[in-house]
Structures are given as C-alpha cells and as structure tokens.
Amino acid sequence: MQEARCLLHDMIGEAVNLVTELQRFGFVVSHDIYNYLIAALCMENRPFAAKALIDRVSGDRYEPDDLVYRELIESFCRCNCPDEALCLKAEMVSKDLKPNIVTYRAIIKCLCKSGRSMDANSLMREMTGYDVPPDIEVCRALINGHCGENNFREAQSLLSFFAKEFKIFDTVCYTAIVRLLKSCESPQNQHLSSVMS
C-alpha cells in the first residue's frame, strides 16, 4: 500500500510538471485538468501544493469553483491548518461563492480539535446567519470541543441552543457534558451530573 501511495505521489508530481511544460509551449490546459490535479493533491493531503498551483494558474483562463474551494478547505482541515482554511473560506466568499455545511463543518471540527472552540462558535453563528443549519456533527464537535476545554457553561448553552433552535438532540453530546461534570469536584457539578444522568 505504501509503495502505491509513493507511486501515486510521484505521478501527481509528474502530472503537475507535464501541465507546466504544456503551458510553456503554449498549450491551453482545460479547467477540468486543473480541477483533477488540485483534487489529487488534496486527496494526498498536500493542500499547500494545491493552493500553490491555484495561485500560479488563477486568472490564466482558470478560476477555482466552489467545489475546488471545498476540497482544498477540507484538505487543510485534515492537515490541522484551520487558519489557512479560514482564509480560503474568506476568499471563497469574496468571489461570491457560498460555503455549504460541508465547508463549515470541516472548519468547525478543525477549530475544535485545535482548542479553538470559541472561534468555532463564531463560525457556527456566521453559518446560521447565512441560513446554513448545523447538523449533528457540528453539534458534537462544538460540545465535545467545549467539554475538552472544560467550558461547561458554553457546552450546556450550546446543547440547549441546538435543541431549541434546530431540534437536535444527541446522547453523545449529553454524555460529553456528564463526563465533564463528573470530572469536576464541586458539589454543584456533582448534583448537576446526577440530575442529567
């Protein structure tokens, strides 16, 4: 499997070099070819190489579409690069391309895993402001993120918000909050934990 991955990695590099050579000789490379190369680089978790390719060819009869932005954002998130993903989302919006739940979910999960749950909250509020409702994965990521940061009040507030506004009820989210409460020693938290269990 590792040999196949190395071969694929080399083939993607060769394909990028071939496209560069074709351009140098005046050949017009199609939009689809760029999209395939960018998708392949993203699948290989090489978002910086994919972004460099986009930067190099943008404006030269190529502009990335919303699908390319989503793939690139997801790739940056898989590589735990939330700031790059946020910059791309902003670039996407500036080009009148609308992020969808897949884009927002990837960034929110990445922010939460990076210990930046409050930033993820802000992004979730932006998302709902654009009429993109959260799904169960967004709910879990935010609540688990806040529980991981020992921010019980925010986790509890989000749990209520998701239930009231979006009718999202999830035992995984409740369990995360109960675990956080049980890990705390205060009598008030122990009481809340027993009530929620």
TrEMBL record:
Domain of life: Eukaryota
Keyword Repeat included in the entry's annotation: yes
Keywords, in A-Z order: Repeat
Ranges for the PPR repeats: 65-99, 100-134
InterPro entries (alphabetical): Mito_RNA-Proc/Resp (IPR051240), PPR_rpt (IPR002885), TPR-like_helical_dom_sf (IPR011990)
Molecular function GO terms recorded: mRNA binding
Tagged with keyword Repeat: yes
A Pfam family it matches: PPR_2
Family statement: Belongs to the PPR family. P subfamily.
Protein name: Pentatricopeptide repeat-containing protein
Organism: Anisodus acutangulus
